[in-house]
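To make the argument concrete, we let one protein speak, a sequence paired with a row of structure tokens, as a model reads it:
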Amino acid sequence: MSRTLRHPVLQWLVYGHLWLALGIAAQVWWIGQFLTDAPEFWRYILAAGCGTVAAYSLMRWVRSRDPHLIASEHLQWVRERRMTVLVLSVVCCLAAAVLCWPLQWPIIRWLVPAGFVAVLYVSPFSGKDGQAIGLRQVPGLKVLLIAFVCVSITVAVPMGYDEVGHSTTEIVLMMCMRLPLFMAITIAFDIRDTAFDPPSLRTIPQLLGVRGAKAIAILLLICTALFEHVFLRGLDYATSGLIALLGYAVAIMLVVLAKPHRGPLFYGLLLDGVLVLLPVCMWLGM
């Protein structure tokens, strides 16, 4: 599969994080199917998509300034469009803020910690040597930080929109059901990044090798697939639970096929596409 994206539409979908934003919005939409009363929820679906573009664009913009990084094609693309990417990030951030306004406490208590971690993951500051600083540089934390932000945005905040209200225990349990999915996808992307990540990051592929990382990611996908299946069967969506297993089987297959040399079509479209595929599969069975 090609390691380059030449068509401008594909470049903006993948490098501009528009496809990933659709995946996050799809995950939020899916949680919304189980809310009892959330009349303005469509606003948050759009806000989640805009926020994804804003956060990832800012992260790539900051990393593109680091002279010590081995620039991937993605970062090279950002470097060539630094002002455009920065403007896109600011505009999407403002759009997300407007869509979420006014904020209520059930939303703020989950959104603020997630936003704090997202901003500090790769902060807009750099050291004297020009190297970007942030939580991303803390050894071993990368997969946990990304997964925490993702489940907060796609599970905890959406449940805060439900007028019926949910206990903290219910929200945390739902987060735990989805957490392995985002951890598995992050680990798969870490396999891609082994050529670019410094050894000090101590990512799962760096610690266990590519095969070990794949084994952990597959185990996590099996766990979240079983959680989802049992959850849907408990709500009398037996067909949806079965079709969900097919979606997770595709995700497992993609992890098996993941290799450091695979290009943006594999990771940026197919692997990120799992975030779209799974809600669609489960919705088809409802």
